[in-house]
Amino acid sequence: MGAGQGGLHAAVSLREEGFAGPITLVGNEPYPPYQRPPLSKTFLAGSIEESGLYLRQADFFDAKNIELKTGVTVASIDRSEQQVHFASGEALHYDHLILATGARNRQCPIKGADLDGVLGLRGLADAAALKARLGGISRLVIIGGGYIGLEVCSLALSMGIEVVLLEAADRLVARVASPTISTFFLEHYTRLGAQIRLGCLAESISGKDGKVAAVRLASGETIETPMVLACIGVVPNVELAAAAGLEVKDGIVVNSRMDTSDDRISAIGDCARFPSPFCSLPSVRIESVPNAMDQAKCVAEKLMGRPRDFNGFPWFWSDQGKARLQIAGLVHDADEFLVKGDLEKPAFSVFCFRKNDLVGVECINRPSDFISAKQLLASGKTVSPSRVRDGAFDMKAYVKEALSSPSAVAASQ
Amino acid sequence: MRSITYITHDGVSHEVTAPDGSTVMQTAQNNGIAGIVGECGGAAMCATCHVYVDEEWASRIPPISDNEDAMLESAAAERKPNSRLSCQIVVSADTDGLVVHLPERQI
Q1: What's the pLDDT at A411?
Q2: Which of chain A's residues have a Cβ under 8 Å away from the Cβ of B74?
Q3: Nearest to A189, CA basis, from A223, A161, A205, A165
Q4: Any CB–CB contact under 8 A between B66 and chain A?
Q5: Closest CB from B32, B40, B71 relative to A289
Q6: Does the reported pTM lie above 0.80?
Q7: Is B12 part of the contact surface with chain A (CB cutoff 8 Å)?
Q8: What percent of chain A has pLDDT over 70?
Q9: A211 membership: H or E segment, kind and range
Q10: How many other C-beta atoms lie within 10 A of the C-beta of residue B59?
Q11: Do A324 and B67 touch (CB under 8 A)?
């Protein structure tokens, strides 16, 4: 249930693992499974078309005997009968149900958010609408300084559009990145001409003839604008699971094998809350393409009789024009940050430690460090701050050696 | 539809067709060709869709970008002059008949 990255990959993986029984892939959007990351980047910029987003060509589903139902809404899950009930009245029996319902945009809670000209960006329809309208404006107010806000900011600036970005927290990308990266982006976009307001809350949006005219801040200041992009995060789609009595808590709760509280139902991807060996917290919900794909594969293997504890390594990227960010690991509770490289170019890496252990590396235009860090951390190995601090430190060489040695590298080195 | 031939590391050849606008990586995935992973889904962010473009074709496909060049430095298998990220090779009339060789490993 859910025909996005996770759902599609679950179907693909099941066939790859040798499952020969019927598979039905159900999605509520009127499109075949497609990639979301390009929606805020290459698709918005016009360098790829809608068909370039599709994860598989139309003939794939017939060839693999996967029944694809798009534009279909599920009304309820009947766990006792093992049936999914569609809004149309049709019902479908399942031996196993995989919930890959993803997430939806958090609604902008302020007055005026329903005016014509207040846009969101989550799905293909949103992206097509935003793309069509970006060409006709000279100023854009973006509410939310996370990945989507910054990616659209980057594109809008390159199109000559004036950008005012409002972020409620005291730094950008606070959910996902270190203060060092937050500061980098603040300076980077300010230098490119954006007006970035931190600790800034939009209080209401005012309109004229039903169309956006201005944004009013909590401070009382008003910013005139013909368009507002509200990108303030997402909430997982857990409603059907909750209504069916499954345990939910900012996500559909699963164990390390992606089992929900019903062993005939698994949950994966943006909607799933699971325990990760790479996170200090008891559970986490990860919003990323690789996570959805890795969990899909894990479930497929489980269903084919090879269950294992999920140990997919968390990594992320954000392509913002001249600043390509790649993050290996989760850095939310890091207590020490070391920068290596050139902040001006920019081409640098931020090594993030927690109690002297490397927990993540954030790279701007340094793919070599990113890939090395991913390999190192995924294998459970580490490097100490003192080692990294050394001017002669070579991450690629260090990791190559660390991975070829049988024992874990001591943190005291 | 354009033709693409994938030659796996163990020498097995797979010839498939692809529509204009798709990428060599998407086409491999669409046809279930093992040997191309594409962890990031085609965003030139993971270097696991690495291919060696057949000598005859290397100069006939669109040139490599700085991003792709940087990512290829970290591909798991040896980088060669004809290394490319298959998610960046777009199918068109110019690529009809393209031949690519798959590396020994992607991760």
Answers
A1: 45
A2: 367-368, 370-372, 396
A3: A165
A4: no
A5: B40
A6: yes
A7: no
A8: 98
A9: strand A211-217
A10: 9
A11: yes
